[in-house]
Amino acid sequence: MIPLESITCETAILSLKIPIKNLINKQYISKNESGTEKSSQFSSDPPSDKHVLWDTANNGWLALQASKTSAIRIKPNWKNTQKIQLQDNRKFSNNNIEIQIYAQTANILQPNEPIIFEFTIQSKQASKMNEWLKESNQTINLPEANTIISSGSANIKSVTCHTPSPTQHQLIEYTIDLDANYTNPFDPDDVKLDAIFTHETGQSFRIPAFFNVKFQHSLQDNKEHYTHDNSADWQLRFRPPLSGKYTYTLTLNDGTTTHKSSPSQMFVASNPDKGFIQISPSNPLTFSFNDGSPYIPIGANVAWSTTSGVFDFEQYWQSLAQNNANYARIWIAPTFSALSLSRPAETNRPTTGPGVIDQLAASRIDKILQYAEQNDIYIMLCIESYNSLNDNAAAHGKWHESIYNIKNGGPLESPSQFWTNPTARKYFRDRLRYLIARYGHSHNIFAWELWNEVEFTNEWPEHLKESQEWHQTMAKYIKKNDPYEHLVTTSAHEGDTSLSHYLLDEIDFSQSHNYNSSQLAPTIRKIATFQTKKFNKPHIMGEMGIAHSGQQTNKDPEGIHFHNMIWAGLFTETPSTAMSWWWDNYLRPLNLWTHLKPASKFIQNAPVNNPNSKALNFISASFTKPLKDPHPAMIRIQGDTRLWSQAPSNQPTIIIVDKNTIQGNDHLSGILHGSTGKPELANPLTIKIDYEMDGEFAVNIAEVSGWGGAKLKVYLDQKLLIDEDFADPDGDEKTEVLKQYAGRYAIPVPAGKHEIQIINDGKDWAMIDYEIVSPWLRDTPWIDLHGRIYPSTSQGQPTVIGWIRNQDYSWTQYVNQRNIEPLNPIHITLNDIPSAYYQLILFDTISSDVTEAGQYKAENQSITIEIPSFKNDIAFKLYRIQE
Q1: Backbone φ and ψ of 370, nearest 5°
Q2: CATH number of the domain within which 827 lies
Q3: Using one digit for the tens of pLDDT, what is the confidence trace for 699-740?
Q4: Could you say which DSSP state residue 206 is in?
Q5: Considering 208, 240, 268, which residue would you say is the last residue of a domain?
Q6: I need a labelling partner for 378 at 20 to 30 A (CA). Which of 175, 631, 723, 781 fits?
Q7: Are 826 and 621 in contact (CB under 8 A)?
Q8: In terms of residue numbers, what domain contains 842?
Q9: What is the Cα–Cα distance from 300 to 707, expressed in whole angstroms?
Q10: Are 659 and 719 found together in one domain?
Q11: pLDDT one-digit tens code per residue, 327-380
Q12: What is the dihedral of CA 538, 486, 299, 615, to 10 degrees?
């Protein structure tokens, strides 16, 4: 396959579809990367809880019985293949079985560069097809089952320290040789090994030890390979926060016998270090290290890797570090992640199954943290994701693969039982203990994140209180058992009802995930201000994107929206970049990491932990000279919240738009709910505006609910001008969102005062935003200003920092091929500025070039500065030079 022109794509898939009637009761077999085999038959009944029958992303193959007498096997060339998948399309009302082969492709396909699908098809008599299972995928020895089983009376035979001259904040590692009677070394009720380190001051630290199966990783043909010599041991990791003398003892308990080691001593030399990340003692809305220096998260999500495995992360961390970034978020769940510590039992892989920690994944996390320490990257470790408790395949549910599912040996018949089931709680709590034991020592763990988008778990509203109590219980467990006091958080997609979880004292900061906003910078500011005010805790925009679709994201190869996410986040109450989700198919292939470096340089000397910090506002902005030929204005309005519960945003809203302000949009929703199906959420919008000239009003629809559709009606002065029925073709049968109605729906608006009403009287929701086109001439600066004021500063620190964005500099303007109109020189008057003389410094957000731009005097708490002409955006600082 050869593209004839440049094409942006998420992936390229070769599909083979076979009518299900030809396969019923016939066999299929497979083997995945770890050698795990599967043998099953195609059923006459469609699947009830999943559509993916099997997949693998490395070194596997698939075979199926093609007729009564013959079988075929498909073996991809894994140099050119990303994944192979077998799925039953009857879940989608299509009567076929589909084999999908995913090619290794760049994010942007270039003209005349072939897309390579390379695989072999072999045939065999159907009666002999199981002979294929006897072949090995790769030459490794996976752990044997007896590796994790031990017998004998509890006895600590020896403790070996591998760090001969320990220093403060340095990792000290021990190997413990022991006897004990256990069958599951990951169950502390079966066997538990703890150490107590007591400092000369009397302060003590309880450190759990952990069981470790040793793996070695290598990169061959751009793919991760791993080997294992069938050896395992018990390890202990301690990072002493204090210098001086320590006494330590170890205690082993195997359920029947307890053995305590003789006390040992060690001296730890002084080695000052920044320490771990904490909530800043001086400003509870910001982060700092133990030594008081600020931590400003700058980075992106890097949730999982491709076939290069851990070596992908090495490259990611290097790319981030080269651009002065210091943050990333990884997922260690659900099962599709190679970092998942919990997965159903697999043949030849004994450290899998309910209540067991997958040692291959655990060794990968070790490597990732090692690379993070080498590159000063601090990681949000996401422990679990909604997928594990979601049975909707269309929503990426992985309940069919969950260790909690009774079909996989787990304790639960349905996902919603998770929150209260004692066994499920124990599995999770034991996993927390293992995480603390093996990785808790790391300075480079920024926070433990209990859940990703927890509100998408099954039957969430009915189990909200149970989930909240679960979060409190597990966060308390971490607080009690993590000697290094890492921060604890969780996450929710749009805030939604999960906001109640952030009220818990045990949850240290809140997060938001936001997609489909065409006005990223204002959205970031509004959400951050709301969250920090409500909870009095730091807030991070943990995920953000211009859309849920990577295809939409890739329409912006220059990274304009990524740039705006970075800079808008720096000036919120918790300075941090909004974290892009599209690391693998957008940021890396287009090398957009470079947008991070200037932002990091700009913010590095700002006193962000200043307790009196406040938002910067401007009184007025005007051109230094009147424009000779002003153009018509374009005003975009978009709601910043998307909630499916009763809230201020889900009630009738009236906003008033004039030349200088938009009033009443504080709680404007980005969702227009249907008054027929959800009358309690109906939120029709009324816009009052005076058009100075003939213009236009437009509604932009992004997505429509797949659970009943929607109906859009737009009235101009009570006259119906738009009446669109966004019907759901299959009613309630399928719930995938409807994208066929995405588009722009516009009406002409004559000059004069008007009232525009936008109503959805359909069954369910539509994602929506609005455009006011040509209501008046653009004769005042079309800018967006973000900034912070620090009333008390030390020498060399700015009192004011700010970022001015040309409102044309946006994803929407770029993809619609509209000009980004440069701004002529402008005067901006800022308020709440301490009276003094100031030096104005201008900062180029792309090149990091710095320019001195004159001295100005602040009087009566205001100052007027002049900003030279610019096209996209510009940052500035004001340094106090004289009282």
Answers
A1: -60, -45
A2: 2.60.40.1180
A3: 999 899 988 999 999 999 999 999 999 999 887 667 778 989
A4: E
A5: 268
A6: 175
A7: yes
A8: 615-626+782-882
A9: 33
A10: yes
A11: 999 999 998 899 999 999 886 677 889 999 999 999 999 999 999 999 999 999
A12: 20
